[in-house]
Amino acid sequence: MAKQKIFGLDISDHSIEATLLEKSMGKTKVVSYSRVVLRQEIVKNGVIKKPSLLTDKIKQLLATAKPKAIRVPFCIVSIPDSQVFTNIFKFPAGLKHEEIRKTIPFKAEEVIPFRSSEIYFDFKTINVSNGTQEVFYAAVPTKVVDSYVEVLSAAGLIPVAFDLESLSLARCLLVPKEDVRKQTKKTPAQAVLIIDIGSRTSDFNVVDIDGVRLNSVLKIAGNRFTKVLTAGLKITGKEADDLKMKVGFKADGGNAQALKLLQTEAQKIIKEAKKIIDYYQETGSQIGGVLLAGGSSLLPEIEKFFADQLGLPVAKGDALRKVADPAKLLPFKSKAIIFANVIGLALRGLKKKPENYDINLLPAKQRKFSLKPDKRDKKAWRAVYIRVAILLILCLALLGLINLQQRGFDIYKQAVNQPDYVTNSTDQNLDIQALDALRQPDQTIGSTTTPTTADSQDSTEPPALIDLEIQQTSIGFLNVREGPAVSFAKVGEASSGDIYQLIDEQNGWYKIEFIPGEFGWVSGQYVDKLP
Predict the structure, then answer these.
(1) SS3 54
(2) Apex 499 CA angle, 496 and 500, nearest 5
(3) Could you tell me the sign of the dihedral formed by the alpha carbons of 173, 176, 179, 182, in that order?
């Protein structure tokens, strides 16, 4: 059965996005995409405030997807980093996965403000060296996950995995470890700082070749930019939104006051980024550059301003770098970065076992992922019906053959002529010398062999009234042939234990009347002459 399709679903405070990808001829292609802006406070800081409204918005999102609606039920959803607690623990290299699973909750309670009974967690080993393994740990409050599961269920969706925004962003924007090592023959030493500037928060994630190393969340982002412009310039929120997207951080943007207000607010993000860079470098590692993501990264020349302030190369992330046909996202091409997280989720959906491919904060008991097609996917169900029909036909044919065998009819025996001999491996009294004698050329071939009697007149005719008994064979009968040799066609069967009258004899073969009016020859090797 073909692999079930899975789409990515990104639920944030300001908007929700969905993307369905497929892999064809080695290329990743966009099947459908959609985006719906949340005008009301439906989700706040990653917490669902209005479940029924969010359910309606998700249904609208899938129904209005382009170029066609998304009708598959399976999805991979991201949990906002603001609701996730992460840490890297160190364990002995020899400690097995199940042993870590039993031990890590006790270590986690030392660093997160929840008891183990109040969270769902998952972990993975990201590096092993010098007798130590580094284990990336992630946890989320159970009430957060449960609320998402309820909304998805109400929308007719089945979550395969709950991913982390940091992991899905890195999956979309960065080259995988395997590709880097294949191209460079070594592991790069420097990490990348991804700054995801959304509507309400800015998320900072340090990612190296092994995965996420450090993260932080700052409650200053795009909405804050709008508020300072609204207050400082005495304009409406709509005007402030339009102005920030027009002026941004351009020195020649034509509004020096707006530029100064934005730069002042952005300095708070710069300050947090510097703290993270300095802290990471104190561990002996280096950050080689910065990638910007999120809707606010679209502000004009924001990357140039950040580069000047941080003293590092800064670029806007390329959300379409792993998508072979970005033309399907052409209406959003200049704003493709807002699809980066959901594309990362959809990329996971293409993996062989997406539920186990990376961190999954969906509890095991709720992982209902199945290869059963969506009830609306007629093409997939038609393929299922055809396969089931073929399987049923094969089963019925097998049962029919078994039934015929039990009734004594062997289709194999009817299709293939059985040999006129039986190999009995249990016969311990086999006379090897006699067997060798039988293999010698017969000097009397072509002559008849009859018992010696004083009054024999015709050597070609057997004595009268000699009865023959068919010996027991492993198949229960002896083939009757048209002539006195195995080269003649089979014309019937003589059952073991039956007695027939000898009619003629040639070259060790006996002619019998095996059924009234029908004559044939049987091998004398498996026939006893009765006195």
Answers:
(1) helix
(2) 120
(3) positive
**Is the confidence at residue 467, as pLDDT, over 70?**
yes
Cis peptide before 67 (omega within 30 of 0): yes
Determine the 3-state secondary structure of 138 from DSSP.
Answer: strand
Q: Which of 46-50, 267-271, 328-332 bottoms out in mean pLDDT, i.e. has the lowest?
A: 328-332
- DSSP of 432-457, one letter per residue? HHHHHHHHSPPTTTTS------TT--
CA-only gyration radius of the chain, Å:
41
For the chain, which residues make up each domain, given as ranges? 7-376, 383-410, 432-530
β partners of residue 164: 79
Q: Whole-angstrom Cα distance, residue 477 to residue 500?
A: 13
Residue 401 has pLDDT above 80, yes or no: no
Cβ 11 vs Cβ 43: under 8 Å: yes
Cα gap 100→477, rounded to integer Å: 68
Compute φ and ψ for 302, nearest 5 degrees.
-65, -35
Q: In sequence order, what E strands does 154-220 have?
A: 158-164, 190-197, 202-208, 211-218
Give the chain's length.
Answer: 531
Report in angstroms the alpha-carbon separations of 180 from 210, 340, 407, 470, 495.
Answer: 11, 20, 67, 78, 75
Q: So what's the pLDDT on residue 205?
A: 94
Full-model pTM: 0.67
CATH topology of domain 7-376: Nucleotidyltransferase; domain 5 (3.30.420)
Termini Cα distance of the chain:
69
Look at 184 and 347; give whichever has higher pLDDT: 347
Count the helices and strands in the chain (H runs, E runs): 14, 23
Q: Are 138 and 123 in contact (CB under 8 A)?
A: yes
Are 462 and 450 a contacting pair, CB within 8 Å? yes
| pLDDT band, residue 366 (cuts 50/70/90) | low
Give the residue among 267, 273, 255 at the shortest CA–CA distance from 215. 273
Tokens of 45: 């800081």
CATH 3.90.1530.30 applies to domain 432-530: no
Question: Do 159 and 365 touch, CB atoms closer than 8 A?
Answer: no
**The amino acid at 323:** V
Res. 358 pLDDT band, cuts 50 70 90: very high
Record the tokens describing residue 265, joined without a space. Answer: 């607010």
